[in-house]
Predict the 3D structure of the following.
Amino acid sequence: MPMLDIKNLTLEIETAGTRVKALDKVNLTINSGEIRALVGESGSGKSLIVSAISGALPQKFHLTADRMSWKGKSLLSMPTEERRQLMRRDIAVVFQNPGSALDPSATLGEQLEESIPDELVEGKWFWQRRQSRRKSAISTVHKVGIKHHRHYLSAYPHQIPTDISQKFMLAMALISQPKLLIADDPTRGMETTTKTQVLKLLTRLNQTKSLSILFISHDLLAISSMCHSMTVLYCGQTVESGRMKMLRKRPLHPYTKALLDSAPSFQNDLPPKSLLPTLDGTIPSLKHVPIGCRLGPRCPRAQRDCVITPAVRRIHDHTYSCHFPLHMEKL
Amino acid sequence: MNQLMHVSKLVFRHDQNKRWLKKPEVFQLGPIDLTVNKGETIAIIGENRAGKSLLAKMLVGAVAADEGEISLSSVRYNAAKRRSTRSYNASNDIRMIFQHSTEAMNPGITVGMILDEPLRLNTRMTEKERRARIEETLIKVGLLRDHVYFYRHMLSDGQQQRVALARALVLQPKILVADEPFAALDPSIRSQTVNQILTLQRELGLSFIFITHNLGVVRHIADKVIVMKNGRIVESGKTETIFRWPQHSMTKKLILAYQSLVPQQKIT
């Protein structure tokens, strides 16, 4: 049974009398012990999905879903208190802007110790408990690759560089030993060496503690090195989803292909300095989304039928929504 | 020779004065020697705080150096002297795209005015000539003439990046320096920008120096790679050589980290 199961999640935002569908029938499942990647460019609604799962959406947004459940329990009909407990213990979220997501008025050590759940603290008396908190804070900070714990634990968020605060957000998420980690662009702007460190840490946690991870990013190199499966999002629609290997080998949707093409490292036979294959145009803004398949105006294979939203089709565990998919003759 | 720029013994020192019981923070960049040929692409890689951005700023003359000489298109400049720096800045042969290129534009004025400013300040062109040059540059980077009337917020990310490129190109430089030009861009926009730069290089014979963390792009477009650590160049050479036979430990670390991400080639 999947851990997190989302079916037909639709999110509508009301702007100036009209309703805009920021997310349009998004499907997402995460099995236990799986690393799933959520890929999409900016404005595709990746972060909205995160806030929808964590329940951090403003009241004005209209959220509807056929199914949105955590281990069989529906998240939508759950009482607020229970949902908060769930978010605290089982799901941990790493938000996108680490600098602004941290509390500016408390030191990093205080914030980290605060996020340790009570049942993980050993000892009976307050001094024992304090020591135990301190100890697990230091060990977690070391685990994510911050060396000078003495300096950084007593620092305020504005005093630390961005890459440290990114790692720190990760430490705060991992310290409560969650079952699912939602990481929203944890490696953005990181240099290659630190990035591999973080990815290795996540992979190790996945293997040893069977932590499920929803890895949100548009860095395909990082994704393909660690993720088991991938869901591609474009403009609030799930475009394709399936096992990483299958998607790499045989992307069915033109957008997935374009994404894979955009990383020159994937093509070994690409001559240096040659032009990269790209899609024309830019990502449409939410006010001007095209009808039907939202990739339509940019798609090289678009035909007249593309003004109708394509239904989700399935080949084994590979789902896609496109009228004219690629690589069909081989299947 | 088609040597365009030669930098010798460029040094920058940053030392905070010693305060009570506090160790002075010392950072020295260089001495740096560098040669740029015509039409060449050079990538600068290295860890954070290695002085990459500082080097880029010093190359364009935005930060004054403490020692050293730069010779640009067969004119020598003493980088340490004030007056010399000023004449260097006025030479228009080297231009820069800043790290957060979109935030480095004035949101209060139109794109036309953004592009007009460097022309007005650096050349003696008449208004008509300037206008013609701006339109020509806009078309060159793949925008339309009408974009002159647009403000920054009306453009998408990719278009803003193009405007930043146009601002650097409007004075028709020979060398373009860019600090992380691809970092903030989405994959599809990033490959558009890469293509744009490649075509411009082919058409205009530009030399291009850029800083990046994305080694995939480096491998694709760079001719030469410079590896920096703690303000020093620890290794430099042809891209293929650096990627296949890295010598210095820093280079090895970076390349290995990159290789571990890249899917290994399979024999089929």
Remarks:
- The radius of gyration of chain B is 20 Å.
